[in-house]
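Researcher: I need the complex structure. Ligand is guanosine-5'-diphosphate. Inputs:
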Amino acid sequence: EADVIVLVVDGRAGVTPADEDIADLLRRSSKPVVMAVNKIDGPRHEDEAAEFWSLGLSSLLSVSAAHGRGIYELCEAIVEALPQVDPATDGEPGTPIEEAEPGGPIRIAVVGRPNIGKSTLINALLGEERHVVDDVPGTTMDPIDSALMIDDRPYVLVDTAGVRKKARIGDQLERFVSLRAIRSIERCHVTLLMIDGTEGPTDQDAKLAQLVGDRGRALVVLINKWDLVRDDPDIDARSTVDELERRLPHITWAPHLFISAKTGKGLHRVISTVDRVYREFDRRIPTAQLNRFLEAAVATHTPPQRYHHPVRLYYATQTRVRPPTFALFSNTPEGIGPAYRRYLANRLRERFGFEGTPLRLQFKRRRKLGEAMEG
Ligand code: GDP
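Model: Output:
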C-alpha cells in the first residue's frame, strides 16, 4: 500500500536468493523502489554495495543504519521517488485505469485469504472450456492472465498463473501474498473478494476491501463455502450480512453473493453481477441531472459554515468514469468536511444507484459565480 518501497539488504552478506525473490516481486509491483545497502560503515566497504546492482533495481544507496551514514541521501532518494500528488484528485490514492477501447474486456481479479477458494472458483469459471480463449482481439494479453468469452462478451481473469500452472511464488514469500493481491486489484476493473461463509469476515478481509475502495475498483463480495453452512444452526444469511456490514462498513455499496465454488452453487450469478457493477463503475451522469441533484441535496442540508462564513457549492460535473469521479465547485473547498462528503456520496447513491463502485468527490475552488475557475 506504500507510495515508495525501501528494500533494505545486508551489504556484508552479499546478494542472497531471498533478495533476488523480493527484488523480482518489487520490479513487477510497478512501485518506485529505493534499495538501501546497509552495513556499509565506511568507504572501504563501498565495493561490496556495488554487487547489488545485479538485482536489477534502478536505485542503490549504501548506508549504515547504525552509524547514520548515507541516511540524508536515502531520504532525498525517497522524496525523489515519491509520486507527485495530483491536486486534481485531492491526493486521493488510486491509480486510474487506462482507458480501454469500448467493448474491451472486463478485467476481473479474485482476491481473498489463502485457502478461501480462489483457485477453486477460478477453475470453475475457466472449467467450462468452451469459454476459454487464447486471447481477446484488440488487447495485449499478459501471459499470467486468462481470457474468457461468455455470451460473446470478453473477460480477462487477472493473475491466474499460479492456478493454472504451479505457483511460482514459494512458501517463504507467503507473507507477501498481499503484495500480489494489491497488484491484481490494480490490474482489474472488478474485484471479487472471497470471504469464508463458515467464519464470517475477518480483519484481513476488511483490509482487502479497503484496498479495493482506495484503488477505486468495483467490488463484489462472494461469501464462499456456503454449502458447509447449511447444517450449522448458528449461521444464517441474515446474521452473515449483518456481520459484513459491521466489519466492512466502508464498502456497504458492494453487493454480495452466497456461493459454493466447490459445488458450483450460485456461480451462475457471478458473471451477471460483474456485468452489473461494471456498468455502474463505467456510468456517466449527465451534467444537468447532476446539478438538479446537487441543488436538491444542498437545499435539504447545507454545508456547515466555516469561521462564520457560508460554504457554498455552486456546480458539479462528472470528470471521469471507472470509477465515477465528480468535481464539485465551492467558494471554500477546504471547508467541506468528511461528514458532508459522506452525506453527498450517500445521496448520490440514493439517487443514482452506483451499486458496486466506489465514488470519488473532488472539491475545487471557484471564487464567485461567473468568475474563472481554478485548478
Ligand atoms: P485458495 O488458496 O484461495 O486458492 O483456495 P483453494 O481454491 O485452493 O481452496 C482451499 C480448499 O477449500 C480446497 O480444499 C477446496 O476444495 C476448498 N473449497 C473451496 N471452495 C469451497 C466451497 O465452496 N465449499 C467447500 N466445502 N470447500 C471449498
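Model: Summary of the prediction. The CA atoms of residues 21 and 170 lie 9 Å apart.
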